[in-house]
Write a structure and sequence with these properties.
This protein is an alpha+beta fold. Helices cover 36% and strands 14% of the residues. It has 5 helices and 4 strands; from the N terminus they run H-H-H-E-E-E-H-E-H. It has a 4-stranded mixed sheet with strand order 1-2-4-3, sandwiched between helices. Helix 4 packs across helix 5. The longest helix has 16 residues, at 89-104.
Length: 153
């Protein structure tokens, strides 16, 4: 008995969603690139935002805001501080992912040049995403941003 199997190369899409997004031209800017530009990465930016900016505390988090120059092409920057007091590595990363998702949905409404640091408190470890988003919204409102993100003061 003879068996014949032929291997044929079949073109397939790349497994990486970012590679597939680059392969298809789009009129909108790449969301991943926008988000990368919005990440606060330098320790100096964190330090300045926390020490010089305004803050609003909630039961599960504290939001620090430093309003910058609205001139130019400086997108809002967001950073997160989730200490070991919140929990182990898995819990800290889970809280960070939830907060990141919440803040990314608000980026377009924030004024240009705004820097925000969201510091998670230990109670955030057991909070739902809805509770965290409520705390973020209330803190931003208290800091002078309306629900649409427009500076009201």
């Amino acid at each position: 008995m003879v068996s014949v199997f032929a291997c044929v190369r079949v073109p397939v899409a790349r497994s990486c969603p970012h590679a597939a997004a680059r392969a298809v031209p789009s009129s909108q800017p790449d969301v991943a690139v926008r988000r990368r530009d919005a990440r606060m990465q330098r320790s100096r930016d964190f330090r300045e935002t926390v020490s010089e900016g305004s803050r609003a505390g909630r039961p599960r988090l504290v939001v620090h805001v430093l309003r910058g120059q609205e001139k130019g092409d400086i997108s809002p920057n967001v950073g997160f501080v989730v200490s070991s007091a919140v929990g182990g590595s898995v819990i800290r990363h889970q809280v960070t992912r939830r907060l990141r998702h919440i803040m990314w949905s608000k980026l377009d409404a924030l004024p240009r040049g705004t820097r925000i640091v969201v510091r998670a408190l230990p109670a955030s470890a057991t909070a739902t995403s809805v509770e965290l988003e409520s705390d973020v919204d209330k803190a931003l409102t208290r800091l002078g941003f309306s629900q649409g993100g427009v500076h009201s003061g």
